[in-house]
Structure formats: C-alpha cells, structure tokens
UniProtKB/TrEMBL annotation:
GO terms for biological process: regulation of cell migration. It comes from Nippostrongylus brasiliensis. GO terms for cellular component: plasma membrane; semaphorin receptor complex. The chain crosses the membrane at residues 68-89. This is Plexin-D1 (inferred by orthology to a human protein). It comes from the Eukaryota. Residues 316-429 form the Plexin cytoplasmic RhoGTPase-binding domain. One of its GO terms (molecular function) is semaphorin receptor activity.
C-alpha cells in the first residue's frame, strides 16, 4: 500500500509520485538538507517496519553550474563574433582589391581600345587622303554607277545585267508589226487611269498573285511609267490611298505599313524614291556611303579573314568574328609592271602571310586598278600570280596545287603566302592565265629543277577558281577545303583553339571606334534637311506631307504611326537596302566579305528609326550593345529630321509636276519600254478574264470602251520572242 511506504532524503521526506512493482519515484527536496561535514544525504526507504538505504543523493550547486556555462558560452560567442568580423573585413578588403584591380584593367583596356581606334582611324583617313590626292586630275573619286545600271540593280536585283528591259525586244520579223501595234495599244491602255487601277486591283485581289509577282509587276510598271513621272506619281498616290484605306478598315497594325513589299503600291513607292533620290546620292550622301564601305574594307583587310567562312579578325558583326588564335605577319610585296622592260616602278602592296593566293590577287588588283571601276578591271580568276626570284626564276602561286597540305580527316588547307615561304619585299606579277610559266625548282626541294609549260602544269585542271565559297567547299578530288579555321561543326583546327566570343569582343569595340566617324557622317547625311552641297530632295517633302494628310483623313492621332510610315517608306526601304548592297550604287565588287559589318550598320539605322525603347541586357545582341550609347543621339536626329521636314514650306502639285517632268526628260530612253511592256503583258494575259470582267462592270471603263480595246489587243498574246535569224527589234515608244 502507498501509505506504508515512506522515503526520506537526509531525514527530509521525499514526496512519493509514482509506485510500480519494481520502481518507486519521489520528488526530493529542492535544496540539499543540512548535514554535518557537507556529506551528501542518504536516501532511506521504509516499507512498513522494514527500512533500508538506497544510496546517497548528490546535490550540485545550480549557481555554480550556470556561471560556468554562461562564461563558456560568452567566450565562444565572442570568439565567433571576432572570427565573423575578421572574415567580413577580409572579404571586404579582398572585394575592394578585386574591384580596384578590375577597374584598373577596364581602364587599361578602354584606353588601349581608344588608342587603337584613334590610330586606326587616323591611318584610314590618311590612306583615304593619299588615295584622293594621288588620283589623276578629273578622275571621279567615287565609282558611281550610271543611272540605268543603278535603277536596274535596285529594281531587278536577281538579274541586273541581262534583264529584258535593258535591251531591245526581239521578235519574229513576220510578227513584228502586229506585236508592235499591240504593245503600243497596251501602253495607251496603261496611260488610262481607269484601266491601270482596275488592272492592279484585279491582280492583287487574286490569291495566286504572290509576293514576288507583286514586286516584279511593281518594278515593271515603274519602268514603263518612268518617262511619265507625273502620271506615275498620281497613280502611286491613288494606290497608296487605297492601301491605307484597307489597312485602317481591316484594323491591321498600321505601323507595319510600307515595311515590306506586300503590294504593288509599296514596290512602286520604293522604286519612286529610287528614281528621285539619284541626284541626292551622287551629289551628297553617296560619298558618305562609299567612305563607310571603303573604310570597312580597308580595316578588315588589315587582319586575317577566312576566305571560306568569311570570318574576320576585325569585324562589327559577332557572327563574322574570327575566334581563333594563330600567328601571322604583315608583308609588303611589289607588283611588277606588265611590260618586260621593267621601265615602270614596282607597286608596293600590303598583304598578310596568311592570305590565300586569290586574296593576294584581289589586293593587288585593288592597288593596281584603284582608279578603274570594278566592271572594267581584270577578274582575279582570269589571272595568275607569279613569284619572280631572279632574271628567269618564276613560279605560279595557286590556292590549290600538288603542294597543298592535306590534314587528317580529309581536310585540305588553301595555300597561302606562308605556305610558299614568300618573303617580305618579294616581287610578284599578275599575268594572264594562258600565258603564265613557272619554275617548279622554286618549290624548295620538293622537285627536281625543271621548267614546265602551263599545259604540263599540275594547275592546268584548275579545280579551284576562287575562295568566295561556302564552308563546305570541296576540291576536284572531293577533299574538304579550309583556310584559317575549319567549320565549327567539325571541331577546331590543329593547334587552333576556338575561344569564347567574349574574349574577342574588344575587337568589335575597336572596329566600331575606328569606323565611328564614317557611320556618323553617313547617318547625318541621311537625316539632314539643310546642306550646302545638296538641298533636301523635293520627293521626300512631297511624300511625307502626303502621309501626314492621309493620317489626318483617317483620324490617326498617334504620332508614332506616321513616324513608322515615314521610317518604313524611306530609311528602311531605301537607305537600308543601299547600305546592305552598296554595289547597287557603286561599280564595286559585290560586298560579300564585308556584308556582316554592313548589316550591323543597317540594323543600327533601323533601331534609330524605331520608337520602341528596348531594354538592353548582357544577353542582348552585341550589335545593339555596341551602339547603345549612340542610339539616343541617332534617335534625336531622326525626330528632328521628321519635324524639320514638316515645318518646311509645302510643295504645290504644280511645282512637283514640273520637277517630275524634268526628271522624265533628263532620263528619257534609259530603259527599253517595249521589253518592259512585253514582260508586263504576260501578267495581263494571265489575269485577262477577271480584268475584262471588272472593266465590263465599271461605268468609266465602259464610257472609254476599255473592254473592247482590251479584247482587240489579243494579237500580243500570240507573240513568241525568238533567237533565230528572222528577227526584228522593237525599240522605242514614240
């Protein structure tokens, strides 16, 4: 029983709290009972009359234990705090040292880039000044194309040299009279407003009238109407009104209007500016565009450029940046005169030892024929490069020959000057391919001494005829070709490691800094309303006022919409096209090698015309980051340009008509209108039935008897241009 059990601790009762078969639990006194000698109290258990001692209960001093624990914890905490403070201070100092180091490095890189930019620009400017100063008196500095060639390249970029509108129409002599009469009647029909508008509307309403057809028809129409620019402008404005009406009615995005040639009117507008901006190009802005092209080309040629991938050490385009490490040397070679008498001094040319033979030939041609338009120069593929080493010693250098180095994996490297061990100050000569001789003994110890004619030369087959090919080029034996770097998908070249782009981004900065003035000069000339050398073309003011009027008519109050129309119509459709394709304006080689840089400049112009403020991050395209600081200034130029034009006095229809008539008079006869009519009639014949139906349901067409006139024009459909002997030329519309 619980009442029979008693527990004491040092004579003091211990309250029983739990009772089990083998266990007793009690609550001892909270304080140690007083005992003599400081002994620990004994625990005595009494059950009835039985008493026994369970042992001693030890009491520790609570105050002493707490003090010790607090002291220990305090010491530990203090030590931790000290360690944390030391770590923070050390990390802070390390971070500050690192930031200071990085800032120093950035300042050093920035100063280095700035210095390189200044030196490179000064060298470019000096070279340009020397180039112009050494030209013979009266030689044009800029190789502008003639008006006809310029227009043909813009209007028909896929066939600018042999398009039918550039030559007389050849037809069967027996049908020449009927065909000429039919085309003259077709021309008269096009001069009728009702017929012209009905024809264009009907064609565009057909779902099978594709975008390329709209572009081509728009170009042909402008060629036909080029000698009637007043009538052409009237028809263009009417088609633009209808295009704007459709855009507003169908609630399309009005800002994208004129951005793409999705209608005949949009193509006609681009061609209209092409015709009327020609004088402004020749007298003012064209020189700035050529300076930019020339500067890019010269700067890129100072460093290596892969002849196949077109990646270059110096570039504005990250995609066309050469990301490989290798050594190269700059050489000065001398091009011997054509005459065997050597009375003319040799011409020095700066090249690189890593240049392919074709690259060297092109640089030599640029130096030798710098005053000659590209179309009048010899082609590099029609010439051989001979290395002269003495009175009779000579060797033909080729991109590919029997000495070409073949690497594991079937890769063959294009030959370079370094491959032939051509030294500095070497004398070379450009000779016609069929007359070249070379001495195989000059290939060091690779062959015995013997002089062979070209017919016995291993280069006779000429499997390689240039280096402007794709990265997947192969030679006649099926071996894969490469120049500086192999295509990325096949891995890096031997001893050449493809590095991350960021390491080489300073080259983009250097290239941009070098060309900054050329880019600024071009954009200033594009967005200039007042110039001493060339006033603002009247066509720009006239068309921009027309767009403002259309916006008011349709209740468009958003200024960004009209801003977008003007930007799409002129800078984006006209200037961007010429920046990307300077060979449309100048008699130069197609700018394949520099197209990456030109695309970056064109994109910068497009960004300057945009009203969208894009937030740039570290992941933004490098082309946008390069010009991020300049973009605010460029956009101010664009805004000022549009506002200044709006404040200029309006051009009356009478004054504009006089200007347009003068334009037609000056450039009359540039194109073969009969040939253009012949091309255009093919589309008329294709859509003849719906056009006839539309004319029959049009009161004005009925009043002018247009359906009958079109029906009587069937003779043209039977014409068959031929190339036989019995031909007749149909040349001019009188």
């Amino acid at each position: 029983m619980e009442r029979d059990i008693k527990i004491t601790v040092g004579g003091v009762d211990c309250q029983l709290t739990a009772l089990a078969r083998k266990v007793l639990t009690c609550k001892p006194p909270t304080e140690k009972p007083p005992l003599e000698g400081g002994l620990q109290p004994e625990v005595v258990v009494k059950i009835g009359n039985i008493s026994f001692t369970a042992g001693q209960l030890s009491y520790d001093s609570p105050s002493l234990t707490s003090s010790v624990v607090m002291v220990i914890l305090g010491c530990v905490a203090a030590m931790l705090i000290c360690l944390i403070c030391l770590a923070i201070m050390r990390k802070t100092n390390s971070h500050q040292r690192q930031m200071k180091y990085l800032k120093t490095q950035m300042d050093t890189i920035e100063m280095k880039v700035a210095t390189e930019c200044k030196e490179a620009f000064a060298e470019l400017q000096t070279s340009l000044n020397q180039y112009t100063a050494d030209l013979p008196l009266g030689t044009p500095i800029v190789p502008f194309l003639e008006y006809k060639d310029y227009c043909a390249r813009v209007l028909f970029p896929n066939n600018p040299h042999n398009h039918p509108v550039l030559r007389d129409l050849e037809v069967d002599s027996q049908k020449a009279g009927a065909i000429e009469a039919g085309l003259r009647e077709f021309h008269k029909l096009l001069m009728n407003k009702t017929f012209f508008l009905t024809m264009v509307r009907t064609m565009e309403s057909n779902k099978y009238f594709l975008g390329k057809d709209r572009v081509y028809v728009g170009s042909l129409v402008m060629v036909v109407l080029q000698e009637k620019m007043g009538y052409c402008t009237e028809m263009l404005k009417q088609l633009l009104r209808e295009l704007i009406d459709r855009t507003v009615e169908k609630k399309f995005q009005p800002k994208i209007l004129f951005r793409r040639s999705e209608s005949v009117a949009e193509r006609m507008l681009a061609a209209w500016f092409t015709f009327l901006m020609h004088d402004y190009l020749r007298n003012f802005a064209g020189k700035r565009l050529y300076d930019l092209y020339w500067g890019i080309k010269q700067q890129m040629e100072k460093g290596p450029q892969d002849a196949l991938t077109l990646e270059a050490r110096y570039s504005l385009s990250e995609e066309k940046l050469l990301r490989a490490t290798f050594e190269y040397k700059e050489l000065t070679i001398f091009i011997a005169a054509d005459s065997m008498t050597y009375t003319q001094p040799d011409m020095p040319v700066r090249v690189l030892d890593c240049d392919t033979i074709t690259q060297v030939k092109e640089k030599c041609l640029d130096a030798k024929y710098r005053t000659v338009p590209y179309s009048d120069r010899p082609n590099a593929n029609d010439l051989d490069l001979e290395w002269r080493t003495g009175i009779n010693g000579r060797m033909v250098l080729q991109d590919i020959d029997t000495t070409s180095r073949v690497e594991p994996g079937g890769w063959k490297r294009l030959n370079t000057l370094a491959h032939y061990n051509v030294p500095n100050n070497a004398v070379l000569m450009l000779v016609a391919t069929q007359s070249s001789l070379y001495n195989l003994s000059l290939l060091s110890e690779r062959s015995e001494k013997s002089t062979l004619s070209l017919k016995n030369s291993p280069t006779l087959s000429r499997p390689w005829v240039g280096t402007n090919s794709s990265s997947n080029s192969k030679d006649a034996e099926g071996q894969k070709l490469f120049h500086l770097v192999k295509p990325t998908e096949h891995g890096p070249s031997e001893n050449q490691e493809k590095m991350v782009t960021e390491i080489y981004l300073t080259r983009l900065l250097m290239m941009k800094g070098t060309l900054q003035k050329f880019i600024n000069d071009l954009l200033e000339s594009i967005f200039s309303t007042a110039s001493r050398s060339a006033p603002l073309p009247a066509a720009i003011k006239y068309m921009f006022d027309f767009m403002d009027e259309q916006a008011l008519e349709h209740g468009i109050t958003d200024a960004e919409v009209v801003h977008a129309w003007k930007s799409n119509a002129l800078p984006l459709r006209f200037w961007v096209n010429l920046i990307k394709n300077p060979h449309f304006v100048f008699d130069i080689q197609k700018p394949t090698k520099v197209e990456g840089c030109l695309s970056v400049v064109a994109q910068t112009l497009m960004d300057a015309c945009s009203t969208q403020d894009h937030q740039l991050t570290k992941d933004s395209p490098s082309s946008k980051l390069l010009f991020a600081k300049d973009m605010y200034q460029y956009r101010d130029w664009v805004d000022s340009y549009y506002s200044d034009i709006a404040r200029l006095p309006s051009i009356s229809d009478q004054d504009m008509a006089a200007l347009l008539n003068e334009e037609s008079r000056v450039h009359r006869g540039q194109f073969h209108v009969f040939s253009a009519l012949n091309e255009l009639y093919k589309y008329l014949d294709q859509y003849k039935d719906p056009i006839m139906d539309a004319l029959e349901h049009n009161e004005h067409a009925q009043a002018s008897r247009l359906p009958g006139r079109l029906q009587a024009n069937k003779t043209v459909a039977e014409m068959k241009p031929i190339t036989g002997d019995l031909t007749a030329n149909i040349s001019k519309i009188k």
